Amino acid sequence: MSSPAVLRSGMAARTLRPEDLDRSVPIYVVWETTLRCDHACAHCGSRAGDAREDELETAELLAVADALARLGTREVTLIGGEAYLRGDVYELIAHLAGHGIRVTMQTGGRGLTATRCRKLAEAGLAAIGVSIDGPAEVHDVLRASPGSHAAALAGVAHAREAGLLVTSNTQVNRLNRGRLRETAALLEAAGVQVWRAQMTAPMGNAADRPDWILQPYMILDVLDTLAAIQTEAIERARAAGTKPTFRVALGNNLGYFGPHESLLRGRPGDDRYWHGCQAGRYVMGIESDGTIKGCPSLPTGPYVGGNVREIALEDLWAHSEVIGFTRDRGLDELWGWCKTCYYAELCRAGCSFTAHSTLGRRGNNPFCWHRADAHRQQGLREVLVHADLAAGTPYDFGRFTLAVEPWVDDAPEAGATSSPGSRRSLPIVT
């Protein structure tokens, strides 16, 4: 490995140190502290709204925080539902920060008032990510809440005033893929420092709306457009003689071995690229009832490793094969196109939760720049065909099948950038 791998954001707390590479440490933990939410987002993977009946109580939360400190966790992101709706959120943040753990929060921002932001900062929150899914007319449809867009932007302003580092996540789908440039300009003007694009996966509420999910070939335009936005931001800063103040970053289910990996996967000047799913190796997910998974986004049913009310967190992390499925896996689980790919040994079919929630099992992921470009060069494109509905429970999924059809240039959408690009050979790391 030529440079330290970075989990998701490139921030120092998540950077892998040399001593981490020979062991499994939950360096980065995403903790759903409640399913209670002040939104009812139409694409929510957890189908948040009402709190679970058996969510962890305050003393249990603090005990889990102590266990994370013992395990060596360096960053915790609190999510929901809406994590700020728990009255004990400030106590939990202070407790985690007291252990030297960097604490962040991801939010829809609808109730992110100036008072809340001040109290979060005083408790020790280091950064907050406010999800904004495009211009108001798109965002409010996806969030199923008129006025949500305006509230989120107000939350960004309140968080900045409180001294928090502010980032933003965007769920990219067929409603907003043509509005990426508008979204970037909006967020940069609002003072967002890092904009992370994550593809809407067919999980939870989004599984009920298959026509919102990107077709695999659409990844090409999405990645090319994001790369153009990042390049232009760098060039503007260079022309002004300053460092870039706005950075585009990829979530774990976008990208993969196209010409834009280093540009979008790391910071300017870094030679970073996808190193495979880190679920249960350096990442942990905690649900609000104490359920533990290797990654917060994994479908609950197939990936529950246990519950902290029944087994100590340290024991779950050390011994659950379900949690640690990425630690010693070979290539035998790969299938379909991914099994034949040049990057198979390193990539392992990209994001596990996206592959599983799309095709019913991991090991074959059609949402890949390299894969879509390889099909395009043959005059072909892959398309998803909806096959099975989801059950209607948190973190559930249905199933699609794949078909291959002749390549057709779709009518261009506003804000999209279409260019064949060129692949850059990357080393295979074993």
Describe this structure in words.
It is a single chain. The protein is α/β, with parallel strands linked by helices and 430 residues long. The chain is 29% helix and 15% strand. It has helices spanning 58-71, 89-98, 114-123, 136-142, 148-161, 180-190, 218-240, 261-265, 300-303, 313-319, 344-347, 352-359, 369-377; strands spanning 28-32, 75-79, 102-107, 127-130, 165-172, 194-199, 247-250, 283-286, 291-293, 306-307, 380-388, 399-406. The protein is globular and about 60 Å long. Residues 1-11 and 413-430 have low confidence and may be disordered.
Question: Which descriptors apply to this entry?
Answer:
disordered C terminus; 430 residues; single chain; alpha/beta; two-stranded antiparallel sheet; 13 helices; 29% helix
Sketch the topology as an H/E string, one letter per element: EHEHEHEHHEHEHEHEEHEHHHHEE
Helix/strand-derived class? alpha/beta
Provide the residue-averaged pLDDT: 90
Helicity level: 25-40%
Total DSSP helices: 13
Q: Indicate the overall shape.
A: globular
Distance between the termini: 9 Å
Biggest sheet, in brief? Answer: 10 strands, mixed
